[in-house]
Amino acid sequence: MKFRAVFNRMHRLFFSSKQDLAIATCSFHSDNIEENKLLNQLRIRIEATGPLSVADYMKEVLLSPSSGYYMKKDVFGSHGDFITSPEISQVFGELIGIWFYNEWLKVGKPQPLQLVEFGPGRGTLTDDLLRVFSKFMPHGTQLSIHFIEVSPHLRKLQALKLCSTDTEEGIENDLLPTKYGFPLKWHSSLESVPENFSLFLAHEFFDALPIHKFQKTTDGWKEILVDYRGGQLQFVLSRSPTPASKLLIDPNENRDHVEISPETGVILDQVLKRMKEDGGISLIVDYGHQGTKTDTFRSFQGHKLHDPLEKPGEADLTADVDFSFIKKCAKNKAVIFGPVNQADFLKNMGIDVRLEKLMESATPEDQKSLKSGYKMLMSPDEMGERFKFLALYPVVLKDRLRKYPPAGF
Ligand SMILES: C[S@@+](CC[C@H](N)C(=O)[O-])C[C@H]1O[C@@H](n2cnc3c(N)ncnc32)[C@H](O)[C@@H]1O
Hints:
Elements: H1 2-16, H2 37-49, E1 52-53, H3 54-63, H4 69-72, H5 85-88, H6 90-106, E2 113-118, H7 124-136, E3 143-148, H8 152-163, H9 168-172, E4 176-177, E5 183-187, E6 197-203, E7 212-217, E8 220-229, E9 232-237, H10 243-248, E10 257-260, H11 262-278, E11 280-289, E12 298-301, E13 304-306, E14 316-318, E15 321-322, H12 323-330, E16 334-341, H13 342-348, H14 351-360, H15 364-378, E17 387-394, H16 398-403
């Protein structure tokens, strides 16, 4: 709450200003430049080419090969900066596994089959999902796993979890066998993933993609940029509309502040094309809104809100996913279900029955953590309502889906 107040004040500051390039916030002193390699990199880039869009800033901070946030350490769990649903309870991944298995059966068990996960983090979600697949999939099913992951460090953690190795040559191998027998391969983008029927999964992936931020002023739409002035990073407003503001803002937009992720549109287009040409089913899970929220760009460090311009590379940067934008991209190209609240999806998928079953054989300590995990995933004031599920199917399945709608929605 405190951060929100500061951030709002920041915005009032630069949006009420009559100057074209109004200064918003100052938070990071030049003394820290020596300590923060990424800040130095950003300063040099800004001095050479001018203020950066928030999208370029996010990309550099999260994915810079030498010191980007995701590139060098394990950021998940109680010792990291945030915790995600698969890390909270095995039930989460198991129910998603049952969902995918069920939907695959419904479309006639096409093979070869691929599970394609975008941004798999520690690999926990796929681990729980494959436990389900290995139990139910008919023996000999041609299933391969494809991870779209840019972080070499996280690739190692994923290999350790699923393949019990973290050697670089293992990860660079064509296909590395997982402990479930199904082979796994890593990719930097969807382009190198083979063209086969795929189950596409993105959990807390789209919120990590770069966003552009725009503000409506009396002088029209301006873009919020990141500048380096007086020894610190600062938000500023563009002098005039930018190419991004001219291209991306919907002429009917009625909010006065919007965040748009063009990379989300590009990746969705690739997925939709694959689904149309090779067949597939997509499940997108993330925190987000339906085109109603305005300023959601924020940073986390040690499970606390953090100034997004402070200590770049040492804290997570994220923005709520705009599900109305996803639906707009998929309109007429896919059959869309959702978004529905996480609590509703998990309830419809039988979380209560699964929990009861696990409790029967759990120790008192495990029972306690199963119950607290359930509460965190389901409670409306924790993750139950903030997180949404959205599914996409190829248009050719429209009639069949009318007859047999997907479970969970
Ligand atoms: C917030 S984490 C979510 C991890 C995991 N899905 C979970 O829920 O626990 C974001 C993941 O996306 C990856 N990532 C971020 N941007 C990416 C990009 N442009 N391409 C591929 N992976 C990316 C990160 O390295 C990380 O694995």
